[in-house]
Design a protein that fits this description.
The structure is a single chain. By secondary structure, the chain is mainly α. The protein contains three helices and no strands. It has helices spanning 2-13, 18-46, 49-63. The longest helix has 29 residues, at 18-46. The model has no long low-confidence stretch (mean pLDDT 89).
Amino acid sequence: MLALLIAIRQLSLRGASVEVIRPARRLLLVSSVVTLALNVAEPLIAGEIGRALFDAVGPLLLIG
């Protein structure tokens, strides 16, 4: 995901159009949602709500 963030930043700095950047942003969004689901699934199944909330912070920052 870090590479996607850097690539999107470089594309925008070089004046790439929105149509060029849009697929990279979509991929970043999808990978963030998948990471969120994977981070939160195990603690929720185990009933550890606090840990699930803590593990959700990183992916949610990338989504927002």
